[in-house]
Amino acid sequence: MSELFEKGLKIRKEVLGEDYVNKSMAGADEFTRTMAEWSTEFCWGALWARPGLDRRTRSIVNLAMLGALNRPHELKLHVKGALKNGLTKDEIKEILLQVAVYCGVPAGIDAFRNAREAFNEAEGKS
């Protein structure tokens, strides 16, 4: 694997948790492996490793985009990562309220529902 992939894998594990990332990578099959490796290398290694924004800010941006795009699986995952990156539940609530106003109330409602599930999972309440 490339140096960029290794850097991305390290950051991905720090943000999303080593268990999740190991399970995700191990679950990749012949068809999905390229996407798993590509997203690790480019999303995490090339983008998240850039010095222009800190991880906390990148989490804010991701939550807004994923809420706007109604991507529940990724939103839940990144809510947990945002907590690790120092965001509070109240800050996440404000981000999702902004999603609701600018992207529509249904997107906001779904984002809140998924964030609550992520909070419960992060707190071991699932």
UniProtKB/TrEMBL annotation:
Superkingdom of origin: Bacteria
Xref: InterPro entries: 4CMD/NDH-1_regulator, AhpD-like, CMD-like
All copies of domain Carboxymuconolactone decarboxylase-like, residue ranges: 35-116
SUPFAM superfamilies reported in the protein's UniProt record: AhpD-like
MF (Gene Ontology): peroxiredoxin activity
Protein name as catalogued: 4-carboxymuconolactone decarboxylase
